[in-house]
Fold each of these.
Amino acid sequence: MALIAILAIPLLAALLGWVPPLRRVAWGITVASTSTVFALAAYVSAEVIANKRVIGAPGWFEADGLSALMLVLVSFVVALASVFAGGYMRHGEHQASRLWWFYSNYNLLAFALLAVPSLAESNLVWVAVELITLFSVLLVGFDNTAGALEAAWKFAVLTMMGAPIALFGFFTLFWAYHSATGGSWETWEGLRTAASSMDPNLLKLSFLLVFVGFGAKSGLAPMHTWLPDAHSQAPTPVCAVLSGVKTTVPLYVILRFLSIVLASPVARLGNWMIVLGLISVGIAAFLLLQVRDYKRMFAYSTVEHMGVILIAAGMATQASDFGAVSQMLNHAITKSLCFYVAGVILLILGTREIQSVRGLFRTSPFAGSMLVLCSLAIAGAPPFPIFLSEFSILSAGMRAGQYTVVAILATLIVIAFVAIMLHVNGMVFGKPAAPRLTEALPASCRFAVLVAAAPVVLLGVYIPAPVHNLLQLAAQQLGGR
Amino acid sequence: MPTSTPEALNTLSAGLILISAFAMVATRQVQGVVRFFVIQSLLLAASSFLLGYGRNSVHLWALGAITIAAKVVTIPWVLRRLLPGEFYERREISQAVNIPSSLLLALLLTVAAEFLTGPLAMAARDPVVRVNLPIGLAGVLIGAYSLIARREAIPQLIGILAMENGAFFAGIAIAPELPLIAELAVALDVILIAVVVGLLTRNIRQTIGTTEAGALSELKEDPAAWL
Amino acid sequence: MIETITYNTFQILFVMAFAPLYAGVLSRLKEMVQSKRGPSIFQPYRDIWKLFHKDEVVSEETTWIFRVTPYLAFVMPVFVTMLIPVLTDYPLAFAFMGDMLAGGFFLGLAGFFAALAAVDTGNPYGPMGASRTRMVGFLAEPVFMIVFFTVSFVAQSTIPYIVQQRWVASVAAFFSPAHILLLIAFLMLILAEGGKIPVDNPSGHFELAMIDESKGLEFSGRGAALMKWGGQMKFLVLTCIFLNVLVAPWGLAHGQLIGDVLAAVPLILCKVFLFVLVLVAIESSLAKLRLFRISEFLGAAFVISVAAMVTSIFPGA
């Protein structure tokens, strides 16, 4: 029941936003709906921890550990981003009369994002992923500037190109499933149990196709070229959602496929995933060195972290699976914080260039300190959560004997760290430029930043038991146990 | 070798689908691209009806009807409504590769598709799979190529939709029992894709003045800047 | 034995007799589609008759090539007629004299000499047209070859009669993607070789734009008559190959009696007439291509024929 409510509420909010008298309170409706959804997601995860799975409608909507984790992190980021959006959109260069369209779209995007983990039928998942792409394209191009439209166009074409390929992969999977079991309604659970009787060639082919098709949507190199553009040109709350969760969700689908493939005695795909993940991390690390726009900087760091998750999943040990899911969680909360801070800086200074931002600490101590905090967090410094998850991935790799992989990955992470800190250093210290915003920062923005920073600070030192249990459950699902 | 009449006619439409994919690559006019796409969708629907008749599968009949409703009727209508007529009057689409070379590349992609699906098709017991799978994959690859090579908005969109046609053509052979909900959802999704891209194109045209994708190149990194 | 030789002769007479009628019906229908009255369908006969009774004027600068070419252009299609199924579906006396490749070479020989003759005269329009014809020809050659190879590969033989029996035999082979693709490629080829729209305008009089018509420019009297008639026979021969081997391998005489063969004549004429209707539709609805677009047209034909080969070779269709 809760699962169905999780999906119905954003839809309702989107529809309500269209009604003319309610358009002015579109923001309020959005915040209310997303916070309710977060509460429901937390409730669902508690139930999953207790009962191993939650069934909304059998065969249609089901949630196990991995889905519950995704639901929690998606709803958290979406809720906070909507809070942030209130203040940001009002002060930015956006027409007030179009804002209801923004919020309506936002709710539809939230619906699609939440639908992917809650759906049990794998083919409908494809449709949900496509809906995510569609709604994000509309949001990215919201600003109607030349840069935004170009970013939206590249985004649309590159990600939609992967869709039919992934569809082909889903059809192949269905073929394998149908010839093995004769059934036609494939839930993830059903697929996993049937995996050992399915034709291994077909499984491999379908995984490959889905990987190529959805990999573009997750920003895996070499299909990542749309990511920096889209994630820097979109309005900041949208960027937070895009970087934080929208790239993770297709990766979740790929990981589901991986767990099915691993359940059948085929798996030599692990090595391919590790290599491709390393390529992503490598490309991102080097591009980080010469980026000129701080939102693009955060976007490249998303590419890097997606690569890390892929490597961890490819290593396919129990410890690395735990590392992968905790990386997914930590990246979501940290990256969204980074983008909130970036939005704050944009409001204050009005420019996206790194070179033009100097002496941020003196202009606005709040923004400066938050920037230092979030960049340390995203680069992987202790005592922040990403350090913990990356460290656990590296140590899992050492234990599994993948010494070269660990060495290369560690080097690349260090390079990325240095690049980010170099840029941020220049931004925070030095002589300040004149601020553009003379009034105080909108309260909702401050609030959002602080609330987002809280888990980042907390999870670095102490993981509460429910969170830990959820992560463990998710890791088990990933590994196919 | 296909043995019954519906299956034989299905192979006929398979050959024609391949030709319409080549035609989409070879044509110069925007109108032409849209028309060949409509023809390809009609052939896909016809194939679906034939296989549905041959196997007494209601699913396939429904899929054919959905294809006609979505791709033959709705999408051209949506595009017409969203985009002003001047988009369609373009008679010379700029493209990265000239037409004879494009055709040769499309041919190579067909050969590649046959190679890739060869072992799978041989292992399949169903003769329809042996025809549909390679040509479906060829349709996907040729659609992807036309997406890359063309530089105008509408042909790129049609490229995406043509890739879906290819995937579906393979799908009706290898996944005929796919739940109807999934197929309905996919059809709706396809329509939404057309709507979104149409809106985007219109906005781009209004803001930037041209939809030549080669003209959109503001956002780039300079890889040597940090050296 | 005697019968097969008789039927072979009968075939040749059939082609010789009906080729001008074919051209006449085609031009009359094209004109009717354009709401004109058009010439009588027997006009080509009258033209040939008239030309035979005129004097020949031959330039002093020409060599033996110019004098030999009309005869070659007339005789080569006759040779090819002996090789292909026109009226019967079992091989006749001279059927094994040469296979499809030989047929292609015969027609190519005629075209080669025609191009040389055009250059021979020294008239400026001759070489221009000849070079264009050669361009179309050399682009069309690979398509011919691939089509023949594919058809031979599928039928496991290069003799047209045996190929035709293979296609007739199974409905499945008839509907394979390879077959459809071959049909379309060969149709594009016939349009190119026969000098029809969209490659060339057969009713144009403007020498600067002529491609295929230019080869007959310099001839007069008997030479002109033979060139004209030979051209019409070549087109009928190509059509017969297309229809009897590829498209509709039915309606040919199966038995060995003279009655069967005679009965096949109206059936063939019917098939040819249906093809004329298709041709009129194509010619009336398309425009002539610009010269350098012809390479794209023939490139498309090449690609389609190779695709046909690919789909028939790979274990699939």
Amino acid sequence: MIENAQLISLSRQMALQRQMDVVANNMANVNTTGFKSEQMLFEQYDMPVARDRDFQGSDQPLAYVQDWATVHDLSGGDIIQTGNPLDVALNGDGFFSVQTSGGERYTKSGAFQISNTGQLVDLNGNPVLGQGGPFQFGPAEKDVAIAADGTVSTSAGIKGRLKLVEFAQPQALNREGDNLFSGGTPTPSTKTQAMQGSLEKSNVSGITQMAEMIRVTRSYESIAQLMSRQDEMRSAAIQRLGSVNA
Amino acid sequence: MKALYIASTGMSAEERNVEVISNNIANMRTTGYKRQRAEFQDLLYQQMRRAGSQTSNQGNMIPAGLEIGSGVRTVATPRVMSQGSVSPTEKDLDIAIRGDGFFMIQMPDGRTGYTRDGSFERDATGQLVNSSGFVLQPGITIPDTAKSIAIAPNGTVEATLGTDAAPTQLGQLQLANFVNKAGLESVGDNLFVETAASGTPQIGLPNADSNGDLLQGYLEMSNVNSVTEIADLIAAQRAYEMNARVISGADEMMQSTSQMR
């Protein structure tokens, strides 16, 4: 039974270490364009095998803790003005679509560039998708304008419309790194507004993450203390029960 | 425990950010300087439970995955190629470009440098050179006898020679433009050189094609906005501090582990 207390504490400590990793990742990405904060969910894991019905009173089931999922906090980040015509912020639930070598990916980061071949690309050179495929600009075209509905036009006329998508279950999206999300079933987003000359900053709140970090370190400490106490208890029990005078 | 290393990626990214911001502030008064911005991306994720994997034979799925990130990286420092404000200098060989385009400068190593800095001088032979003495391309020579030099918005350089009544055309300035201006490589001295990412230069006349026009007697100031830079600096500094706090927090956790009996 005493060992169980230690195993339960251990399950909590392992979960807390991973939660610290999540907090550290949020904090590291506090200035990452379009980054969405992560939160960790825990669940109680009942251990039925440890129940023993041979005792008189019913035995308490053991409840371990398990980190169950990380959910994306998809609330909007601060929108800042950059004045760069190729910076686009999205106001709403929509994502941009980009074409990577691994297929279509989705991002909230609208820091785009024009490649040497005149394509609209993200910072890794992945083409940004419009509803009719990537955007191609000629060398003489200028004054790129992006309207609120995502229509991209230049001095040479309308070039197409940004492919903005949303998801019925955004929590099912997987993070790929490089500000990209994958998976899910995209549907066209109609309510998302594009804002040219602005960028959506990370939605990580420094204060919340700091508070979360303090909570994690303190509960880790108290669990460590608890384990020490358990150990003392066990050593006392061994000393007392093992004593020849008992 | 990855938190230590994750927070260290955060600290080094913010350090980069402060470097970029301080370079912008240092070049606040540099003619034709274009400000840079540090852009970050999150690193790969460790997928511990992948969203969408099945949890039963009935086809139940995990609605949200368990993903642990591994930090941040600085991915690019693109230049914001917006127009800087033009300020009058009343010097006849100061030229500002209003719109797109770069002046072409013959660099000593044989390459062509591209610049928005239009403060030119005459060298001993009368050729137009930039502040480092590099010759402007296409070369324009202004004779000793030239008076009242006039540079038209389309780049035509005219001067009245000696006692002539009518001005003589001495040449026409040309501008280079790039598909991807942010892809130019900075080589210092206000000069950029072409790269594979920028594409090849499209050389044309000012006020034609997609090039801007020229303003004589003006210089283009840097496009650094001091207020935004200072605000960015404060944000970067605080983010650095908070990442440092995460490191000490992770350290505390490891300390309480090592003190366990």
